[in-house]
Task: structure prediction
Amino acid sequence: DGGGVESLDYEVIENFAYREEQAQRGTGLAAVFINIAVENFAGWKFSMTFDIIQKSYIAGFFVYVLINLALVYSSVYIITQFAPAAAGSGIPEIKGYLNGVDTHGILLFRTLIGKIFGSIGSVGGGLALGKEGPLVHTGACIASLLGQGHLAVAIFAAKVAKIVVGVAIFAAKIAKNWQSELANHTDCRFIASVPLKLCLLFLGGSTKYHLNSRWFQVFKSDRDRRDLVTCGCAAGVAAAFRAPVGGVLFALEEVTSWWRSQLMWRVFFTSAVVAVVVRAAMGWCKSGKCGHFGSGGFIIWDISDGQEDYSFAELFPMAIIGVIGGLLGALFNQLTLYITTWRRNHLHKKGNRVKIIEACLVSILTSSISFGLPLLKKCSPCPDSDPASGIECPRPPGMYGNYVNFFCSKDKEYNDLATIFFNTQDDAIRNLFSAKTINEYSSQSLLTFLVMFYALAVVTFGTAVPAGQFVPGIMIGSTYGRLVGMFVVKYYRKLNIEEGTYALLGAASFLGGSMRMTVSLCVIMVEISNNLKFLPLIMLVLLISKAVGDAFNEGIYEEQAQLRGIPLLESRPKYEMRNMTAKEACGSGRVVSFPRVVKVSDVLSILRSNKHNGFPVIDHTRSGEPLVIGLVLRSHLLVILQSKVDFQHSPLPSDSRGGGRSIRHDSSEFAKPVSSKGIRIDDIHLSSDDLEMYIDLAPFLNPSPYIVPEDMSLTKVYNLFRQLGLRHLFVVPRPSRVLGLITRKDLLIED
Amino acid sequence: DGGGVESLDYEVIENFAYREEQAQRGTGLAAVFINIAVENFAGWKFSMTFDIIQKSYIAGFFVYVLINLALVYSSVYIITQFAPAAAGSGIPEIKGYLNGVDTHGILLFRTLIGKIFGSIGSVGGGLALGKEGPLVHTGACIASLLGQGHLAVAIFAAKVAKIVVGVAIFAAKIAKNWQSELANHTDCRFIASVPLKLCLLFLGGSTKYHLNSRWFQVFKSDRDRRDLVTCGCAAGVAAAFRAPVGGVLFALEEVTSWWRSQLMWRVFFTSAVVAVVVRAAMGWCKSGKCGHFGSGGFIIWDISDGQEDYSFAELFPMAIIGVIGGLLGALFNQLTLYITTWRRNHLHKKGNRVKIIEACLVSILTSSISFGLPLLKKCSPCPDSDPASGIECPRPPGMYGNYVNFFCSKDKEYNDLATIFFNTQDDAIRNLFSAKTINEYSSQSLLTFLVMFYALAVVTFGTAVPAGQFVPGIMIGSTYGRLVGMFVVKYYRKLNIEEGTYALLGAASFLGGSMRMTVSLCVIMVEISNNLKFLPLIMLVLLISKAVGDAFNEGIYEEQAQLRGIPLLESRPKYEMRNMTAKEACGSGRVVSFPRVVKVSDVLSILRSNKHNGFPVIDHTRSGEPLVIGLVLRSHLLVILQSKVDFQHSPLPSDSRGGGRSIRHDSSEFAKPVSSKGIRIDDIHLSSDDLEMYIDLAPFLNPSPYIVPEDMSLTKVYNLFRQLGLRHLFVVPRPSRVLGLITRKDLLIED
Ligand SMILES: Nc1ncnc2c1ncn2[C@@H]1O[C@H](COP(=O)(O)OP(=O)(O)OP(=O)(O)O)[C@@H](O)[C@H]1O
Ligand SMILES: Nc1ncnc2c1ncn2[C@@H]1O[C@H](COP(=O)(O)OP(=O)(O)OP(=O)(O)O)[C@@H](O)[C@H]1O
Ligand SMILES: [Mg+2]
Ligand SMILES: [Mg+2]
Result:
């Protein structure tokens, strides 16, 4: 049954509980406020990358392998033992969440913690994966948790975070002594999550009518959480790439399924604050407090000093890059699909031990290749460059810049493979994007790197560690992009061409070919490279690579979602649905329904007899005709059964006492907990007296679920279901009368 | 009744006509293809700005005033006599169209022509208005016309366009002889509309299931047109600002009401092609074929060589700019609202003559002020600058650059007011944004310009000419922005500050305060200025100005829409709707309905007796109970009445002959013409024999309109109506049975 996947309920249930909520305005104000002040812990992201350069290469190799292994082991251990939902990138799950299906545990606190520390391990451990996907998931988790307003959780988290940071710093210092040079590459981006709190504040504040009621309201329903999670995703991307507009567009294009125009403004607000805060963090880092991080600036891979202009002759090689990107991207999706399927069916079934061993083996393999291959490569002599250009050659390894000296015998030599392979991912990409370094790389080195890294990325994908696909994608893409760039430089001699430009386009093309995003990728690429002049080129390349990729398979997130059993509803109905009616779709099985007043024992037996989550409630009119009075949810029935306060002795409706009813239940009892199964039916224990009593369901039902006539075509039903984000829809007989028509005029009510 | 406003019908009507359409795949392939090849004419935009500098200032003044007057007169004449729907910016109307209401004539061919030539006149005539709004409207018109595939129209248009261009060029040459210097500032952007055709091609092609059927399909329903118009808007902005991503976001944030994720990709595609084509046009223009235009480049107002960095101390004056923007923007909206209301109620009622006189008076006023005020201003001495900086002072007027010599007695002097006031808008903005020109403007000149231009912009708004608010907004905003910048330069002496940066922020803030867009404005501002580093600042300023503006009134487009009686449905329901039910909303009036088989005379009399546009059709089951079998539209009934082929003698349903029925009607007969009233009831003439016959409505009705139970709250009804873009909704009694439940599982049909 979908493996722990369950639908979310975005419907506004207009029963008493909802109306109570409306009345309890302004409560919890103080609680959320303190919450906000404390939850600074969140979103921490350390990518501790150990640039090891030894006097003894063999000892260095072992240290390198072991440190990587230790980091990866810690990551996979955390994931397997503590937070299984934190494995992978998390974007397919978040996409599913926003499409209306809940993957178990995806937004829990432990998942957040697992994700943060797991990706420190996996990225720090040098695996061929990135941290951007996990950051999106992290953002969504934080947003969702903030929405719950659990003060205790926040305080606990802050404490845990402090301890863990302490341990991490201690470990880093020890590692420093071990190695000749160690730079702990602290990202400082954790500050970037502060704005999420502001988003939360804002989510309430900007709407006209709710200025008082929602400002500090605690978000309890799936519907409220949906907006917060969208905000969180945007904040994640904005913080990861320092690309605020890209974050907004990513949330809009890739993750959300329902977009309301108010959301634009809120998501934008979150991103804007993220941008300002990231900028502040950058300023702070410039003073050297963040180790290697300082020189990054607000733009990650700035190429604004690169190629000035481009000519039409270049469009052809660029189109080729687009095609390559489409092909390699589609191949990547297909290979990872096969491997992940195989892993699920054979490897991961055998338990956590196998997962741990697998991750460790991948780590050793990755370390060996990235350390060993550059050793085999012969060094190249440094180019003759005037010192005014500011390019130094060779540079000591473990520092910014190109022309790394690694295992070179002569003085004026550098190792081009080490420059990209034996380096942090950020630096490797910066080196690949770099301008004014024509002919730095031999095509042989680039090809070697491309093949090896591609293979590693495919193998690494799907191991039980948090893993993003953005950075590996950029690595792969920029490598073949630069390769093409080398040929262009060779053949179009007269043009002023930088290989780095082609590397950028290559990166865009691979991401486009694999993820199939367009606008958001385009904006993200521009924002990370700070060169608006290439916008049309990036667009062109993305269009081609997406079109080529679409010819083969679906985007990586859709494929992964399918694989994980997350049933995403696409935005458009399938073609076959035109010829089906609603009645045909819901099958011919008997509808399981409840009468208005129902015996407790009947409720229990009906709930046990099936797995449905919603049931129609049927009453009778005075004249004895049946009448559908609403929909009751399994989860609400379970709450009623557990609390027992609504049981009554009489089998008659309790209309007369309706006033008192609402007092018996706190509205929060019906509030659905985030990503948890809620009460299970086996947890309910009722005495035989209880079983003989009755429940009047009237106050608990959703009195007006959406309905469709039986012969409406499934296309229209689909649109209704998908656009409104429903969970249940009643198929009813054709009506016998029309009581009125609603047109635009009826809905134009003036304030 | 809303003044010619009528709802659009986005519903898929699943009757025979629709199913026929499905069968007639691939027809019209050739037609659309030729259409595409020929419709090159569209989107032309000349802003012929006459930079007049005379030896005799008095003669010059008269020439200047007269040329402006002639241009404005031609514009207002075209609008009043030929295309009244082309007045104003058109964005509120397009917004309304995409929200589901049709303003009469808004997408007609004559409106397109009127818009293009009208805005040539109004912008060329030096009025305080812009051409960007009209370009958006133009884009939408072209898209909609392309969607109709009328070959004849296209060929005719191409011919008309050629002739008019010829005349325009001829006129320009004559004007050249008249004046000492004339530069016809041809925009070349007309080429930018080529991609619209490609968008059209693409609109069909990318969807999986329709690869054959829709590739060259002619777009006939409101639903198809909706996507095309959205595409057109994005293309308009992309071409106007050379801001492709900004175009996508503008379409998304400001104009559309329904956003489907496929649309993103299509709109993006259109914009991408626009970007590439604009780039091509720029390259072509560089060789000097477009007069003044060549030096523009792909970025309109490039400030990438400006300020490098900013410090936190600057955030305070920037916040102040945001506040000023919010205040002035809101004031602008309020003033224009009053003036437009007054115009509508007093001035424009009196007929076209008054409109023409009004526009001419405004033109004379504008010309006099922009020529006269700089004359009164004393010239300033040129700054001492090293020649290496490339800044020349003074420059001859009518050319690019700052430090214009206008009515200066000495040699080394310039007139700072003339530099911005007596100049084309593009150049004025470039001068305001310019870096390395600190202290070019005296605060007195800037203030004078600000006050005068603001007043002119308010007065000009609402005259019967095509008018955009973007460029005037940028002018106003950058003026006070630069003013604030001057103070900042004065008080924060140590910082490396450029006044131009503040001008850019000022422009953003005014647009934000008036139009209340966020993401799209932000991206547009970055794209026109090519400085990504200021993105966080622009975001900040926009957030503040929008928030401040929202405290006073609504955005300018919403206010104008309201004023013009375009009933926009906001994206969220009003708060009062929570306590209303569907039944209450649609009132207690008797529902006007039809039986299945109805007498022709009854149809006529019912249609005459009311103004409703949709009617339920009621049949009877075998057992004699009534049954609602669908909804029939007034427009379809009128088609049936006019064609008469469906009349029958028998008052019985014509089930047996159902097969033959579909042949009688070409599906195109029911296709709704764009923006036209269709058949009027008075046009139908029936003989008395005809009146005695019957019509079986069954084949013509929409068999399954959406239904809501009578006691559903209006909030939910609103969501359904708004999200699905409906026109009619049946309110029905509560159902007596539930035949089935539709859940996510039922909708997950595999191919
Ligand atoms: N009360 C009911 N009576 C009869 N059939 C039902 C009822 N509720 C659902 N069904 C049918 O049972 C099937 C699965 O129902 P189920 O309630 O598990 O929904 P689901 O798609 O799995 O979504 P969810 O995630 O909410 O469980 C569907 O085909 C649906 O038509
Ligand atoms: N067939 C009908 N019988 C009775 N009342 C109707 C009928 N159709 C519409 N109405 C009511 O008449 C009012 C106006 O109807 P009308 O059909 O003019 O719609 P509208 O809102 O103006 O939209 P449109 O632009 O489609 O005309 C609405 O309040 C609606 O409830
Ligand atoms: Mg289920
Ligand atoms: Mg009407």
Q: What stands out?
A: Chain A has a mean pLDDT of 75. The domain at 582-732 of chain A is CATH 3.10.580.10 (CBS-domain). Chain A touches chain B through 122 residues (CB under 8 Å).
